[in-house]
Amino acid sequence: MDTTTIQSAFANNNTTDFLPLDGTDYVEFYVGNAKQAAHFYKTAFGFQSLAYAGPETGMKDKVSYVIRQHKLTFVLTTPLRINNPIADHIYKHGDGVKVLALKVDDAASAFEETVKRGAKPYQETTVLKDDDGEVVLSGIHTYGDTVHLFVERKNYTGVFMPGFRAWKSNYNPTETGLLYVDHCVGNVGWNQMNPWVSFYEQVMGFKNILSFDDNDISTEYSALMSKVMSNGNGFVKFPINEPAEGKKKSQVEEYLDFYNGEGVQHVAIATHDIVKTVTELQNRGIEFLSIPASYYETVLDRVGKIDEDLQPLQELGVLIDRDEEGYLLQIFSKPLEDRPTLFFEIIQRKGAKSFGKGNFKALFEALEREQDARGNL
Ligand code: FE2
Asked: What local confidence, expressed as pLDDT, does residue 138 receive?
């Protein structure tokens, strides 16, 4: 599907959207040690302390730290005791994304409309109140143990939501230019991509705006298939990956093995200046997939003229791709934890609305080198 079709898909959907979304509200990670994770994300990525919840705020069995950079909000949650669903989640999956929270105007309607269309309820509509007003939450299950929460905060003026207090810290590292969630990718099991595509179409009113089959995304060894789902206004995009048969194990299969099931593979974060952002992240110890020099010998023949100098992009390992509307710059981190599961993409869009199809070969060869080094290829 070309990008002209992408736009008309958005336009057609605007009038009939039963689940209007204002974008990603936050991403919540269940982690083994939230205090240290918050320090890591602050230090390495330049997030700022925003809010805290724990025993001191009446939350007896877990602790959550909320950190923010521009419109990008992460919640890092850890259990305080065993026999707790958060502890079970971490035992099974390791650290990972539990909640992709979506901003809505009406959380009760979001729950009703999606459950009516077949969503499995995760949280009934709940009104949380404190002196700063109210936040309305509801939630449904998606792939694996991952959930979507619908967050309505139009009548709330507090720092995050009831139950949390402001987190003032003496440690406020410089930001790195991270802006907001561009897209969030889910890895699902064999033959599960199309059922989840149908889920996002039928239950959430999303459209399939792009598809990649194993001819687009295969290298000598491993392969995958992917379909990109977008909501009506295009603010929320969820590509869904499934493994495909190759000579050796697909990268998606490696993820499924180590995550023990389906889940979020990567969160793509937007920046206005990828060279500045990635230079800063590398200086703070974040490691990215390395791209061979040969990629840069031919890339401009493929993508044409770009505003940036090629040299710094090559030094950092930034990839370039072009579609009908412009180009994009993107780079992929190594896994953020010891299991080869979750990683981040940093992306700067200069007109392009696509996802870097022209880079798949170089990218997946780089991923395979890492997978091979782990003995999982
Ligand atoms: Fe991506």
From this structure: 98
